[in-house]
Amino acid sequence: MSTPNLTILLAEDDPFARAMLEQILSDKGYRIKMAENGQEALKKFYEDNDIDLIITDMNMPEMNGLELIRKLRDEGNDLPIIVLTSNLEIKTAVSAIYGGANAYLLKDENIEDTFVHAIEHTWDHYQLAREKHRLLIKLEEKNQELERLTFLDGLTGISNRRYFDMLIDKEWRRGTRDKFPISIAMIDIDCFKFYNDTYGHQSGDDCLKQVAGALKDSLFRPGDFIARYGGEEFVAVMPNIGLKGAMEMAVRMQHNIRKLALPHEKSDVSDHVTVSIGLACMVPDPQTDTAQLIERADTCLYRAKEQGRNRICQTQ
Question: Is the pLDDT of residue 292 over 90?
Fold first, then answer.
């Protein structure tokens, strides 16, 4: 593959070798920047932002090729570098490869035949490596997005039951270690079956979306989260907060639901959509688990419904 559009920085202290290599590169149509040592090459590299590839001799005054390579790599520059070396410097050239060079080329009687080929091969390999890196990053981004989507409820856009199960376990372990309370709220839309029967499932889906948004807006601390637990039921997790703080959150939830003013003419408790909430709080320890906390909140939610719905009940 031809690469005549490259701008090449050539660092070579020997005038004869420098002139010969410059002629070879010019004949092939490359743009060339010249330097007599590593220090000058480094200066030109930072002065010109259009250099695509560096070719450097190993033994040069002020700064040799190996020092130049290490300096560039230490500063995060990944452009391809080819090392020129004699037969007696093979071990040093190998050290340069380990130090960050992409290839090395022998300065022998065949260099006129191998020089351009080495540049093309190195550039192609560099481009392939960059493309591979780009594709790997893109793949990782897609995997992260796929993982994110697996934790979202497809209808409401908030977290799903799977995410809740994972996060509550994580918070429980953290709470066990740091000895802080975890509060949860089990939330159920009152008389939702009647809502669906009256307004249709499309309106029911829209109701679920709006309720989910109102509940999510009720949580303002970074560690709090809301998830759709199933059907018309939601769950909020509030780490490091006691029942008093959780009650304030629950009151805000009901307030935000009322602000939606969604008509519900078949509700037993109101002309608009309402929710019942069960609150529970525990300080995790090795003898307890998340199932106990969820069961307590469920019991409170059941009691809220039994007492007439549209209310908040909490563990005693």
Answer: yes
Fold classification of 7-141 (topology level): Rossmann fold (3.40.50)
- Cβ contacts of 104 within 8 Å, gap of 6 or more: 82, 83, 84, 85, 93, 94, 96, 97
- Residue 109 catalytic? no
Which of 36, 232, 248, 306 is flagged as catalytic?
232
Model confidence pTM above 0.90: no
What does the domain layout of the chain look like in residue ranges? Answer: 7-141, 161-314
User: 6 and 54 in contact (C-beta within 8 Å)?
Assistant: no
What's the pLDDT at 257?
A: 97
The more confident residue out of 307 and 146 is 307
At a CB cut-off of 8 Å and minimum separation 6, what does 143 contact? none
Task: Give tens-digit pLDDT for 176-206.
Answer: 999 999 999 999 999 999 999 999 999 999 9
* Residues contacting residue 167 through CB under 8 Å, at least 6 positions apart: 159, 225, 227, 237
Query: What's the confidence (pLDDT) of residue 109?
Result: 76
Element (H, E) at 239: strand 233-239
Amino acid at 281: C
Residue indicated by tokens 């590839």: 53
CATH 2.40.50.140 for domain 161-314, yes or no, is no
The H-assigned helical ranges of 82-191 are 90-99, 111-150, 161-178
Q: Would the CA dihedral through 146, 184, 268, 230 be positive or negative?
A: positive
Q: Is the pLDDT of residue 211 over 60?
A: yes
